[in-house]
Design goal:
By secondary structure, the chain is α+β, with helices and mostly antiparallel strands. The protein contains twelve helices and eleven strands.
Length: 356
């Protein structure tokens, strides 16, 4: 393991990697290489929680093969190391083989002793990846059996995990805004445009689903115009009645609303349907055109989630772009209707002249 000077150099290397590129893959590879080389460990892997919150998927790795990673169970099983990590705990297993195949502390690694020996792996350290107490992944370090980590090294690795988490969050949102802006200029047809925006938003914020609802002409209901990630059965529940949805009343009044758990929120219409759909947390922001509310944009999480200010500001920015797109699409539709009307008028006028 590295001495204090080596650990300082590691911190500098990681900070430099995070600050030097907006390419997330390049940044994560640089972070993992810095950890591997400075601590002289066998392998380092970053795993990120999927949108359904039931699996940790590999986002970057150094020192291990794809074959090895394919043999590691990705599901989050009760009592496993990764379940503990997602609860905010640091897990250290000195010898994976000695822990035994059925031991939850083994971290869900579905590997034989021979496979561990072939990969020259034994020790395992897992550190949460979190932004403002929201854990969304794991920094996994593999070393030889019995390897130890000093308190200083663990502290530095926690700082490294925090920097990597910030890099992931920032890169995701920067990339998403770029793609969303590109989608908004690709077409003036509202449905395909909104579907692209919602898909990018869900992917980059690591969410389950998203939807856009617009006020009807009587301004009494919110009608669905686009969604991503929601089942047909959930969508079939119907329009949202403003009279019965205090949450949407607040949003249309200009408030951004965060629901940590919809099951306990009386002002959320269709609670039972949301539970059946696997929805736990909701973030809702207003859609406004020329300072007037026109609808609501919602995003849904499969796990209870404290949305960060970065995430909230990101969705507010997306909602602003979506509102402009809605206005542009409506103007385009009005112009198209006017154009078709003029064509009919010209055609009728020509027919009249021909009769004369």
């Amino acid at each position: 393991m590295a001495d204090d000077m080596g650990l300082m150099q590691l911190m500098y290397g990681i900070a430099h990697a995070v600050n030097s590129s907006l390419d997330l893959n390049a940044t994560l590879q640089a972070v993992l290489r810095a950890i591997q080389e400075s601590l002289d460990v066998r392998a380092v892997v970053i795993r990120l929680l999927n949108a359904d919150a039931d699996e940790l998927q590999v986002a970057a790795h150094v020192g291990v093969s794809e074959e090895f990673l394919n043999n590691v169970r990705t599901g989050i099983t009760p009592g496993s190391a990764h379940e503990q990590v997602l609860a905010g705990k640091t897990v250290h297993v000195e010898d994976l083989a000695a822990a035994g195949m059925g031991d939850p502390a083994r971290g869900g690694h579905d590997l034989t002793d021979e496979q561990l020996h072939m990969a020259q792996l034994g020790g395992f350290l897992a550190i949460p990846l979190a932004v403002r107490e929201r854990v969304f992944g794991s920094l996994d370090i593999y070393c030889t059996a019995g390897c130890g980590f000093s308190d200083t090294a663990v502290t530095v690795l926690h700082a490294s995990a925090d920097l990597a988490a910030i890099a992931i969050e920032n890169a995701r949102l920067h990339s998403a805004l770029f793609r969303i802006a590109a989608a908004l200029t690709s077409t003036l047809e509202l449905q395909p445009l909104l579907k692209q925006v919602l898909e990018s938003t869900v992917m980059e914020m690591n969410l389950k689903a998203a939807s856009v609802r617009l006020l009807d002409k009587k301004r009494q209901k919110l009608e669905l115009v686009a969604s991503h990630g929601l089942s047909e059965s959930y969508l079939a529940k119907g329009a949202v009645s403003l009279e019965r949805s205090r949450v949407d009343q607040r949003v249309l009044a200009g408030e951004t609303v965060i629901l940590y758990d919809v099951a306990g929120e009386e002002g959320f219409q269709y609670q039972a349907e949301a539970r059946a759909e696997g929805i736990r947390s909701v973030l809702a922001v207003p859609l406004r055109v020329k300072e007037q509310p026109v609808g609501v944009m919602r995003v849904y999480s499969a796990q209870p989630r404290h949305f960060t200010q970065i995430g909230v500001h990101f969705l507010q920015s997306v909602a602003g772009l979506v509102a402009v797109a809605i206005e542009n699409a409506r103007l385009y539709e009005a112009l198209q209707a006017r154009y078709e009307g003029l064509k009919v008028e010209v055609s009728e006028w020509r027919r009249f002249l021909s009769l004369g």
